[in-house]
Amino acid sequence: MDQDNSALQIVSTADGSKTIYNPFVGENYHSKHGALQESEHVFLNSGLRYYLADKNVDSVSVLEVGFGTGLNFLLSADYCQAKELKLSYVGLEAYPLSKALLEETGYKNLVSANLWKSFVANYEDSLTQLQSITDFVKLSIVKGDAKVYQTIQKFDVIYFDAFASNHQPELWEEDFIKKVVSFLKPGGVFVTYAITGNLKRTMKALGLQVEKAPGAARKREMLRAVMGGECEY
After folding, report:
1. Are 142 and 92 in contact (CB under 8 A)?
2. CA 184 vs CA 131, 179, 187, 218: distances in Å
3. Do 189 and 51 contact (CB within 8 A), yes or no?
4. Cβ of 56: how many Cβ atoms within 10 Å?
5. Residue 149 and residue 135: Cα distance in Å, rounded?
6. Residue of 26, 233, 217 whose CA lies nearest to 225
7. pTM
């Protein structure tokens, strides 16, 4: 069943950027303490830029669990475009937002004009097939239950941005986390805004090196895990 977008509400967050409140879940798509701050810190800086820091590559691939408003994608795409780095981005989303609602977020003011214009123009088509957003950026949004997603593709970086475990517990279960990690390349990076004992133990059992990194938007810690190596706490 599709979600009724008319019930979703645009809300402002503490850093001046906007997010969306989802009454069906009872949660915002981003932190009320700063949507932009959270996305930049947790996903762009602690995920994508961390992965790229010690590498000389001309392309990178990202899988996002919980595409939502597209903010994580837009920031990542804007960064890669500026660096002339090819980005292949796959987002998993059970209930894609309408294009009209995306345009109300004001995210066009956070990224380059050509990126925003092309994202909006190609958004609906990206829900059915891979789209070239710019010369450097390709996007595919997979609509449906993330738990049934299958692919032979391996990714450099995984953004795990599902709703919190008390609202969406099925996406934080050990079996699903194991499945998501199976899509990660050796040396790849998994990042999420949350950190729990169960999540750390699962990552350790899968052979990832786990780091309790500084959190964003009033969160003390977040989790970053790298495929391969001994785990540390």
Report:
1. yes
2. 22, 10, 8, 29
3. yes
4. 5
5. 27
6. 233
7. 0.94
Residue 212 CA to residue 204 CA, distance in Å, equals 13
Helices (H), the chain: 35-38, 50-52, 71-83, 99-103, 113-126, 174-181, 197-205
- Which CA distances in Å does 118 have to 43, 78, 91, 131, 132? 22, 12, 17, 10, 9
Q: Could you tell me where the DSSP H helices lie in 59-216?
A: 71-83, 99-103, 113-126, 174-181, 197-205
| pLDDT tens readout for residues 66-125 | 999 999 999 999 999 999 999 999 999 999 999 999 999 999 999 999 999 999 999 999
Question: From CA 112, how far away is CA 34, in angstroms rounded?
Answer: 20
Q: Tell whether the torsion through CA atoms of 159, 131, 74 and 59 is positive or negative.
A: positive
Nearest to 43 by CA among 160, 141, 137: 160
Sequence-separated (6 or more) residues with CB below 8 Å from residue 80: 48, 60, 86, 87, 136, 137
**Residue 189 CB contacts under 8 Å (≥ 6 apart), including other chains:** 47, 50, 51, 156, 157, 158, 224, 225, 226, 227
* Strands lying side by side in the sheet with 18-22: 9-12, 18-22, 27-28
